[in-house]
Amino acid sequence: MAIKAPKGTKDMLPQEAYRWHYIEDKWAEICSEYGFREIRTPAFEATELFNRGIGDTTDVVQKEMYTFEDMGGRSITLKPEGTSPAVRAFIESNLYAETQPTKLYYDTPCFRYEKPQAGRLREFHQFGIENFGTDSMTADAEIIALGSDFLERMGIEDIELHISSVGCRKCRPVYRKALQDFLRPHYDCLCETCKSRFEKNPMRILDCKSKEDREICKDAPMMLDYLCDECRQDFEDLKSYLDAMGIRYTVDPSIVRGLDYYTKTAFEFITTKIGAQGTVCGGGRYDHLIEEVGGPQMPGVGFGLGKERLLLLMDACGHDFGIAPAPQIFIAWIGDKARTYSLQLIHELRRAGIRAEADTRERNLKGQMKYANKLGAAYTVVIGDDEVDSGELTLKNMETSEQTKVRREDLVNAI
């Protein structure tokens, strides 16, 4: 029986690679324009990092992490998100001692044990940005603008920006009590997971996927009604900055990000283009995460964007990715002397930056030309003894069938 890829994973095949390269290049490009620099973190981290950073009342920590014990008896977890590892690297490398803010971006695989569905796999790939070291709402507005600009460049349609505030350590306890008072009469009807969250983090109940619990919570009090003066002013500032940049948004009090470290700003880019309403990009502010992971008191803000979901959405919007790069020239040969000559020529072309191909299966000339067509080569050259002796080659344009005589030393320029 053939071995198959694990459930919830997917191979990226050569015919799809150029689409991934396309979005990855555009992502790096826009991050550079906004002043963000790349960071790469390991695929796995100490489990404690996510327990402390994400929060042990979240679905991610309670149900979705790939955690195991390594040969040294250490608890290790495949990273389920990109922010906590970036924070750990920021602290460990003493980047907090440099001039702030620190603006980072990444492109990384992540792992969560979820039910596989369209655009959501157990191994998925995520774009992300983080801005450490500033509590100004201009930073929040900047990363939202980057997300908005990037999605626009990717040709995304039917997408809405939803924003809210999840409060801070000052006003959240007041809201927590109000929420508990509302939920207490319904406690026995909550799922077991939500019952375990009732005392420690009742806001997580609002994010429950259970249909029954969502029905209970539909009339629950909203955090926006309990914001302290500072959080309320920050939220007003954020809205004014987005207004100034012409970025349209909807205030959505129901937003509850799935990770515990968020404070104040929370936002999501939401679409209905690929079926049910879904979040394409989400993030917010986390003013205490750095200190909770062991660093100095320093604020942060960022977002994550799933690559698989983005590609699905771009397909739904009819985005033109162009075509996969094909060989610029295919060299066919007849005879042993021509083979040696052709291999030398192909090597020279490749060293000059030309995408050059040849047959390595010893097909006859007819088979080689069929192969060239299959590859989509722009030009072909057939080399026999006469071409080897004269150094004059016949360059054929495969689209127009036009043929041109070219000296070997002029071939690169001709292409």
Describe this structure in words.
The chain is of the alpha+beta class and 415 residues long. It has an eight-stranded mixed sheet with strand order 1-5-6-11-10-9-7-8. A five-stranded mixed sheet has the order 13-12-14-15-16, with helices on both faces. It has a three-stranded antiparallel sheet with strand order 2-4-3. The chain is elongated. The protein has helices at 14-33, 47-53, 59-64, 83-92, 137-153, 172-183, 192-197, 211-217, 229-244, 289-292, 307-316, 336-351, 365-375, 385-390, 411-414, and strands spanning 37-38, 44-46, 67-69, 75-78, 102-111, 123-132, 159-165, 250-251, 263-271, 278-285, 300-306, 329-333, 356-358, 379-383, 392-397, 403-407. The longest helix has 20 residues, at 14-33.
Question: Topology of this protein?
Answer:
Blueprint: H1 14-33, E1 37-38, E2 44-46, H2 47-53, H3 59-64, E3 67-69, E4 75-78, H4 83-92, E5 102-111, E6 123-132, H5 137-153, E7 159-165, H6 172-183, H7 192-197, H8 211-217, H9 229-244, E8 250-251, E9 263-271, E10 278-285, H10 289-292, E11 300-306, H11 307-316, E12 329-333, H12 336-351, E13 356-358, H13 365-375, E14 379-383, H14 385-390, E15 392-397, E16 403-407, H15 411-414
Parallel strand pairs: 1-5, 7-8, 12-13, 12-14
Antiparallel strand pairs: 2-4, 3-4, 5-6, 6-11, 7-9, 9-10, 10-11, 14-15, 15-16
Which tags fit this structure?
eight-stranded mixed β-sheet; elongated; 21% strand; 415 residues; 16 strands; alpha+beta
